[in-house]
Backbone:
């Protein structure tokens, strides 16, 4: 495992592609604790924070000259993304499965729900992006949602069952961890700064980002933690739909702004990671 020092707290700033003064940060109507923190951090750097009052793009932001960025869950991103001309970035569905076994600590595969229903033993099964069913350990394939609930071609990620002793969330921008937090201990919510764990967490993160960069957009969230067999990657998710826990809000904001900003400003390298946004008819 490589070594690196824990980063100093990130001061308020605007870096290329992460929002300039005058830009708008649009927050979902059901604002959570991370949204409240981002609203404050945005105000410190001269961004206008706008909390939506409904699950549609606010009329006053349609065709807005200042660039609009968004923070909220997948349903909110889908509801406003196309109307506001946003580029919502998410990791490749195959990213985790493509990592070396020494980084995942288990077998991971991407398949369909129909094939997963044929499982004859316990496995951790989750949708790779949207939360269309609960991500958890299923005793076998028969316990998964049936065809009357979800189509068999629904993509799923299947992995061997492992026990993470602790879990940490990393907000990553251009291959660098900008903010991080612990969020679970032995599978139970336990939020805390990295503290004394920073060295181990960031050293493993450096290995993961060096090995798995091609499957991640320039801004994303990566979760990692130690198992009984060593350090491993939990999963990767969209930064604009992920909780920040005890991570530095300014660093989280940097990543969120890049992960969900104007399509016109999207770097070419991030185009493979665009979320397919639906066309909303009202």
Residues:
């Amino acid at each position: 495992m490589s070594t690196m020092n824990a980063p100093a707290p990130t001061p308020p700033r605007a870096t290329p592609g992460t929002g300039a003064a005058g830009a708008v940060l649009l927050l979902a109507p059901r604002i959570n604790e991370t949204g409240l923190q981002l609203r404050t951090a945005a105000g410190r750097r001269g961004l206008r924070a706008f909390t939506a009052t409904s699950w549609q793009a606010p009329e006053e932001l349609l065709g807005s000259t200042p660039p609009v960025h968004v923070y909220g869950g997948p349903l909110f991103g889908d509801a406003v993304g196309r109307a506001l001309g946003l580029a919502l970035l998410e990791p490749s569905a195959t990213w985790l499965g493509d990592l070396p076994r020494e980084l995942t600590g288990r077998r991971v595969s991407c398949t369909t729900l129909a094939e997963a229903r044929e499982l004859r033993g316990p496995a951790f099964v989750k949708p790779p992006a949207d939360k269309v069913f609960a991500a958890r350990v299923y005793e076998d394939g028969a316990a998964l949602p049936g065809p009357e609930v979800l189509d068999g071609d629904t993509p799923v990620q299947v992995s061997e069952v492992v026990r993470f002793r602790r879990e940490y969330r990393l907000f990553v921008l251009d291959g660098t961890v900008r903010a991080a937090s612990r969020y679970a201990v032995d599978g139970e919510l336990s939020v805390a700064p990295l503290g004394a764990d920073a060295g181990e967490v960031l050293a493993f993160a450096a290995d993961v980002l060096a090995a798995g960069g091609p499957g991640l957009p320039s801004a994303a969230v990566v979760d990692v933690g130690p198992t009984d067999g060593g350090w491993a990657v939990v999963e990767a998710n969209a930064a604009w739909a992920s909780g920040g826990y005890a991570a530095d809000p300014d660093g989280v904001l940097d990543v969120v702004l890049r992960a969900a900003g104007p399509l016109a400003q999207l770097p070419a390298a991030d185009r493979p990671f665009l979320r397919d946004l639906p066309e909303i008819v009202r």
Q: What stands out?
A: Residues 198-212 form the longest helix (15 residues). Residues 172 and 220 are 5 Å apart (CA to CA). Residues 1-17 have pLDDT under 50 and may be disordered.
